[in-house]
Amino acid sequence: MSSDLNGWFTIRFFHHGAGKDRLMRDALMPALAGLRAGGQVRAAFLQRHWLRGPHVQVNVQLAAPDALPGVTEALRTAGLDWWAAHGPLEDLPADEYLRRFASVGQAELVTEPLLPLVPGGTVTTGPLRMREEMFGGPSGAATARAFWNDTQDVLRAALDPRAQQEGRVPTFLRWAFTFAHAFEGLGEEAFCSVPSVGLTFKSHAEAYFFNGNESLRAPFEHKRLQAAGLIERLYLEAREPDRELRQLRAAFRDAYGRIMEDLAAQTLRLPTTLEYHEMEGEDARPLTETLSSWHAGLADPDSDLSRLSREPEIVARRLIVNLMYQQMITAGGRALDRLFVCHVASRTIEDAFRDQAWTAPRPRPVTPRAALAGTL
Fold first, then answer.
1. What is the pLDDT of residue 301?
2. Inter-CA distances, 147 with 46, 119, 330, Å
3. Do 182 and 264 fall into the same domain?
4. I need a surface site. Which of 29, 192, 288, 291 has the fewest CB within 10 A?
5. pLDDT means per 10 residues in the chain (376 residues)?
6. What's the gap between Cα 310 and its chain centre?
């Protein structure tokens, strides 16, 4: 399947200091709404990025090739006017930038040098670049773009000052619990139930603890127990979602349907854990050192865990949950926020379905290609 990135462009707003939430919410999103209403933009999504300096990307699919100058100028004017109204821009020194943002910059799905820095207050335009193989190929990358486009109102709500007064983590927990309930009725119950989705959060929490800081587990669990009442309320809200969460749920289900069709047609193939590991280059730790005790079965292609990780429903959700994580980043989430959300979501689902057996893989022969398909 060929790429369909033609017609997609990225306008970058380099903003080294605080205030990117307001830049997105108060300047770029209203400008985009006008461009959509005027028929110049078919689809669009905002993201935070860090390569060559912290910046906000506005990724747009043009309605026509000749729309680019007008779209760029409208967005550029909105950004420059907002900057002019909110004081001087900060410029990070290169050493400070590397200290604060090298790890997140290197983790992005576009490969280019971290330096030289682009000065704050700069606006650049160019074709959208995506490492489509990281999304399973062009069809998976198209699903990612559609999901991010479809959840811009959800992102806008997360950037609203009223939501931020409560804190980002409750918002992200709402998203995670909505994800947990989103796939019911879309296939075999064993592979679309809330407990089966909970395995995804369990897998990611255990991987983060093992490869990050195991000492966080106890304080995170203490914090979870202290907030038990709030967490229960958020979990129940996701079962009967409001308009915003219904929109998010619909986006999850739409992405899931597209990915399942692509998997059946063999037009999408996500990289295995081994292939992801090889992409990290020579400095990566040996793969066996990155597997927690919970994930040890992934080293054996015949284990239940390894076989389960290759079930199409699990593969589809593995891609979708990472699209949700990207939206968390754009909404201002930190790596620790995501770790805490995964821990809370997995423990909440475990408590809610304590008497239900774990999801088991389908009984079928294991193919030689199976090795190390990835975390759940």
1. 79
2. 12, 31, 14
3. yes
4. 288
5. 79 96 98 98 97 96 96 98 93 94 75 87 95 92 98 97 87 98 95 94 91 89 98 95 95 98 95 66 57 72 84 95 97 94 97 86 61 48
6. 21
Question: Domain boundary residue among 84, 104, 129?
Answer: 129
Q: Is the dihedral of CA 145, 146, 147, 150 positive or negative?
A: positive
Specify whether 311 is located in the same domain as 188.
yes
Domain ranges, residue 193: 138-370
Q: Is residue 375 part of a domain?
A: no
Q: Write out the chain in H/E/C secondary structure.
A: CCCCCCCEEEEEEECCCCCHHHHHHHHHHHHHHHHHHCCCEEEEEEEEECCCCCEEEEEEEECCHHHHHHHHHHHHHHHHHHHHHCCCCCCCCHHHHHHHHHHHHHCCCCCCCCCCCCCCCCEEEEECCCCHHHHCCHHHHHHHHHHHHHCHHHHHHHHCHHHHHHCHHHHHHHHHHHHHHCCCCCCCHHHHCHHHHHHHHHHHHHHHHHHCCHHHHHHHHHHHHHCHHHHHHHHHHHHCCCHHHHHHHHHHHHHHHHHHHHHHHCCCCCCCHHHHHHHCCCCCCCHHHHCCHHHHHHHCCCCHHHHHHCCHHHHHHHHHHHHHHHHHHHCCCCHHHHHHHHHHHHHHHHHHCCCCCCCCCCCCCCCHHHCCCCCC
- Both tokens of residue 92? 């990070």
Looking up tokens 């304080």 gives 219
Q: How many domains are contained in the chain?
A: 2
Determine, yes or no, domain membership for 3: no
- 323 and 269 in a common domain: yes
Cα separation, 327 vs 239, in Å, equals 21
* Residues 142 and 237 grouped into a single domain: yes
| Residue 10 · residue 59 · CB < 8 Å | yes
Position 164 scores a pLDDT of 78
CATH code assigned at 18? 3.30.70
Cα 110 from Cα 185, distance rounded (Å): 36
Residue 44: per-residue pLDDT: 99
Whether residues 200 and 166 fall in one domain: yes
